[in-house]
Amino acid sequence: MNVTVRFAPSPTGNIHIGNARTALFNWLFARKSGGRFIQRFDDTDRERSKQEYADRILYDLHWLGIFPDHVDYQSKRFAHYDAAVEKLKAAGLLYPCYETPDELELKRKIRLSRKLPPVYGREALALSADERASLEAEGRKPHWRFLLPNHAGDPSETQRTDISWTDLVRGEETVDLASLSDPVLVREDGSYLYTLPSVVDDIEMGVTHVIRGDDHITNTGVQIALFKALAAEPPVFGHHNLLTSATGEGLSKRSGALSIASLRDDGIEPMSVASLAVLTGSSEAITAVSSLEELAQKFEPSAASRSAARFDPADLVLLNRTILQNMPFEKVRDRLVAFGIGGPQAEEFWLAVRGNLDRLADAAVWWRVVSQGTRPGIDFSDADRAFLDEAFDLLPEEPWNGETWKAWTRAVKDKTDRKGKALFRPLRLALTGLESGPELSDLLPLLGREETLARRP
Ligand code: GLU
């Protein structure tokens, strides 16, 4: 089977790490099966959708390493939805309703008081042509409901109607259509809700697998019925658990919390985000995975747990450390240039400091430490100063390499009465101005003898 998946956010805000989870599940699934990935913007809500958000979403996806095979916008496809509406109307499966929200609420309360399920009672289906005409003469405009196939011919007599599918993530799933109201597909003003356009697109774009959050499970029951009403074979569905914060709260596109943009601005690496977004709530341990190809190997949709996937944003920095620690120079060369880090020493420098970074930008701090001209001004005690004087006199001649530090400190230890922290701390402070950092055996050759001597306090 030629696999086609899609990621279908509404462009109404910045995507967050939970949205990235959905995008990545689809992308990794497509990568594993040699399939296509469609980026579809569900922008039928013209008020809230913005091109600017769609552009930012594409930018965020690229940053994560997702490159869609095709990009489409629902706002350009209204003619297709109109055609589907005509088909449903002709089949008697889409009917006009005139109730106001207040009237609907009243009906709901009445049903509840009669111990009936609080679903729409299909009263509008019984309206005669005259009654409809007079409602319209009053100025009412209809909204349109899809008649769910939960009856045996008489829509006023609903009966249990299980829609079942084998979910890619959750296994056997069932939704009883008798427990649902006929969904509104078209609003009074003629605008579309998400339900129908999504199905029309999935049919026409040849989507074979719909992988999305488990907040869509009920929609799936309705949408499978819609696929059938439009004489199409439903795709395979997979519903993954949603990411929640450590305190159990959901994420929202509007709040901006944990948006991909804010994580990027905070110096979090794309693979740290991808590792956490995909591996949280799976059977795999959360580890820093270096590439999406490698992550695809670990990705198994059916292994995701059903309950909400709690994650701790603090893990992102831990993952970042590991990602940076394993990052080869070729992968960061250009990005380092942006921090002013370049030239013949850049690679050696990177290899020396990469194990000590929370964020790539921290490399700039170490670049300043090793680059010529920085003189850490530390106020040493007289004893330390005397010790350092002796130590600097023992600096080996060049050429220097990875062994120089060891040879030097051994000589210092033999000559002075110091060892351990009392020996290493003042040396580190004199050379870097900082209490801790990369191995001095790596930093020393980068400094060179002349620069090292210049740091003699
Ligand atoms: N626009 C929908 C959403 O963002 C898409 C759901 C789907 O994948 O079908 O929730």
TrEMBL record:
<dbReference type="GO" id="GO:0005737">
    <property type="term" value="C:cytoplasm"/>
</dbReference>
<keyword id="KW-0436">Ligase</keyword>
<feature type="short sequence motif" description="'HIGH' region">
    <location>
        <begin position="9"/>
        <end position="19"/>
    </location>
</feature>
<dbReference type="GO" id="GO:0005524">
    <property type="term" value="F:ATP binding"/>
</dbReference>
<keyword id="KW-0963">Cytoplasm</keyword>
<keyword id="KW-0547">Nucleotide-binding</keyword>
<protein>
    <recommendedName>
        <fullName>Glutamate--tRNA ligase</fullName>
        <ecNumber>6.1.1.17</ecNumber>
    </recommendedName>
</protein>
<dbReference type="InterPro" id="IPR020058">
    <property type="entry name" value="Glu/Gln-tRNA-synth_Ib_cat-dom"/>
</dbReference>
<dbReference type="InterPro" id="IPR008925">
    <property type="entry name" value="aa_tRNA-synth_I_cd-bd_sf"/>
</dbReference>
<feature type="binding site">
    <location>
        <position position="253"/>
    </location>
    <ligand>
        <name>ATP</name>
    </ligand>
</feature>
<dbReference type="GO" id="GO:0000049">
    <property type="term" value="F:tRNA binding"/>
</dbReference>
<feature type="domain" description="Glutamyl/glutaminyl-tRNA synthetase class Ib catalytic">
    <location>
        <begin position="3"/>
        <end position="316"/>
    </location>
</feature>
<dbReference type="InterPro" id="IPR004527">
    <property type="entry name" value="Glu-tRNA-ligase_bac/mito"/>
</dbReference>
<feature type="short sequence motif" description="'KMSKS' region">
    <location>
        <begin position="250"/>
        <end position="254"/>
    </location>
</feature>
<dbReference type="InterPro" id="IPR020751">
    <property type="entry name" value="aa-tRNA-synth_I_codon-bd_sub2"/>
</dbReference>
<dbReference type="InterPro" id="IPR049940">
    <property type="entry name" value="GluQ/Sye"/>
</dbReference>
<dbReference type="GO" id="GO:0008270">
    <property type="term" value="F:zinc ion binding"/>
</dbReference>
<comment type="subunit">
    <text>Monomer.</text>
</comment>
<keyword id="KW-0030">Aminoacyl-tRNA synthetase</keyword>
<dbReference type="InterPro" id="IPR033910">
    <property type="entry name" value="GluRS_core"/>
</dbReference>
<comment type="function">
    <text>Catalyzes the attachment of glutamate to tRNA(Glu) in a two-step reaction: glutamate is first activated by ATP to form Glu-AMP and then transferred to the acceptor end of tRNA(Glu).</text>
</comment>
<dbReference type="Pfam" id="PF00749">
    <property type="entry name" value="tRNA-synt_1c"/>
</dbReference>
<dbReference type="Pfam" id="PF19269">
    <property type="entry name" value="Anticodon_2"/>
</dbReference>
<keyword id="KW-0648">Protein biosynthesis</keyword>
<dbReference type="InterPro" id="IPR001412">
    <property type="entry name" value="aa-tRNA-synth_I_CS"/>
</dbReference>
<dbReference type="InterPro" id="IPR014729">
    <property type="entry name" value="Rossmann-like_a/b/a_fold"/>
</dbReference>
<dbReference type="InterPro" id="IPR045462">
    <property type="entry name" value="aa-tRNA-synth_I_cd-bd"/>
</dbReference>
<dbReference type="InterPro" id="IPR000924">
    <property type="entry name" value="Glu/Gln-tRNA-synth"/>
</dbReference>
<dbReference type="GO" id="GO:0006424">
    <property type="term" value="P:glutamyl-tRNA aminoacylation"/>
</dbReference>
<keyword id="KW-0067">ATP-binding</keyword>
<dbReference type="GO" id="GO:0004818">
    <property type="term" value="F:glutamate-tRNA ligase activity"/>
</dbReference>
<feature type="domain" description="Aminoacyl-tRNA synthetase class I anticodon-binding">
    <location>
        <begin position="384"/>
        <end position="455"/>
    </location>
</feature>
<comment type="similarity">
    <text>Belongs to the class-I aminoacyl-tRNA synthetase family. Glutamate--tRNA ligase type 1 subfamily.</text>
</comment>
